[in-house]
Design brief:
Layout (H helix, E strand, L loop, with lengths): L1 H45 L3 H16 L1 H11 L5 H18 L4 H23 L7 H22 L4 H24 L17 H19 L10 H25 L1 H18 L4 H11 L3 H11 L4 H16 L14 H18 L6 H4 L1
Helix pairs in contact: 1-5, 1-6, 1-7, 2-5, 3-5, 3-13, 4-5, 4-7, 5-6, 5-13, 6-9, 8-12, 8-13, 8-14, 9-10, 9-11, 10-11, 10-14, 12-13
Length: 366
């Protein structure tokens, strides 16, 4: 009887330990949401005019995305460094400085750089504890889309920055809770993915993964969503993106990453154009389109297993590369036309098919 009780207690502890990786992913979903709320409220509240919006958007993209590769590399060397807390300090300092002084640019840069550190903090915590599961980091990333649209609406309606600051304080509590859960884990399992085809070199896998992320970033600005006619529709669009990013990791764990990635891209592209006037069909297509985020992260971690946070930074650099093409859209609109986007996503399918192994769902691998 005592032996059975010990076994039962041990089993419960083991199952509880397994759930903690999802708790960390969920807490970072909320923290990521809060981060993007304050950043995009700041951007739209103080830099929303057409005359400077383009320039400030470019500055924001560079300041918030580019450093993540270098911060990630630092985290892989300095394991005890906590970028999430460093980022929170920068973001809140930028908000406080703006509330106390008339300056715009310096607080904006401080908030943007803090954004980069918090992002890497989320990647580090989820990748340090997710084991073979793609869902926790995917859930973390999904929170950003909801924060972007919420912050944008707060900024456009000129709401007090105290609202975004208060939400960020709640996000800080989530980061602290994640840190405490992580410290309390008896056997945290770092990311160990095996998605890359062993016949391909690490350079080939990394280069094509970078291309896939960049292509998705570019095509994302060309997707036709002619049904959007209100702020409610805009909110639903970003909710669809968030759902897709989270489901990409969840479905990869349940059904296999390669099947999930290839089917989501192949099905999403025709549906995007077929449903461009129909809200629910378009939302379904955009959800599918957003599902490859976790795939590329898993591929990069597969070939750089000792540097998982650097691998995350590479994926962010790819997204930045693709997104920067939006600034040439007025001069090269054909880049965002249906024909070019279809060709580009066809190349994405071929790339993923070439570099991914025929994996199995995690249940079969256990």
């Amino acid at each position: 009887m005592n032996a059975n009780r010990k076994t039962l207690r041990g089993g419960i502890c083991t199952e509880t330990e397994k759930l903690k990786k999802y708790e960390i992913g969920g807490l970072w979903f909320l923290a990521h949401l809060a981060l993007e709320v304050i950043c995009f409220q700041f951007y739209y509240k103080y830099f929303g005019s057409l005359t400077i919006a383009g320039l400030m958007a470019f500055v924001y993209d560079i300041a918030a995305f580019m450093p993540q590769l270098f911060i990630g590399a630092l985290c892989d060397v300095k394991k005890k460094f906590l970028p999430g807390f460093a980022g929170v300090a920068m973001v809140l300092a930028g908000v406080l400085l703006k509330l106390l002084a008339p300056w715009k640019i310096f607080p904006f840069l401080l908030v943007s750089l803090g954004n980069a550190f918090v992002h890497v903090g989320g990647a580090k915590d989820t990748l340090d504890t997710c084991g073979s599961r793609l869902a926790p980091p995917a859930i973390f990333v999904a929170g950003g889309a909801m924060g972007v649209v919420t912050g944008k609406l707060l900024g456009l309606h000129d709401r007090s920055l105290l609202i975004g600051g208060g939400i960020m304080l709640l996000g800080t509590v989530c980061i602290l809770l994640s840190h405490l859960i992580k410290k309390g884990m008896k056997t945290p399992a770092p990311a160990r993915y095996d998605l890359a085809d062993s016949r391909r070199s690490a350079v080939t896998v990394a280069a094509l993964s970078f291309f896939v992320v960049a292509a998705r970033g570019l095509v994302g600005y060309g997707l036709p969503t002619l049904w959007i006619s209100s702020e409610y529709h805009t909110f639903l669009l970003f909710a669809g993106m968030a759902a897709g990013k989270a489901l990409g990791g969840i479905c990869s764990d349940l059904f296999g990453a390669k099947k999930t990635a290839l089917l989501s891209v192949l099905v999403s592209m025709p549906l995007v154009y077929i449903g461009q006037h129909t809200m629910w069909l378009s939302l379904f297509a955009i959800m599918l389109f957003s599902m490859t985020m976790s795939t590329t992260l898993g591929l990069l971690v597969s070939v750089f297993p000792e540097k998982p946070v650097t691998a995350y930074g590479i994926s962010v650099a790819g997204l930045l590369c693709g997104s920067l093409f939006v600034f040439v859209k007025p001069y090269a609109p054909w880049l965002f036309g249906g024909t070019f986007c279809a060709v580009l996503m066809g190349a994405v399918v071929i790339s993923l098919w070439y570099i991914m192994k025929n994996d199995e769902p995690w249940r079969r691998r256990q």
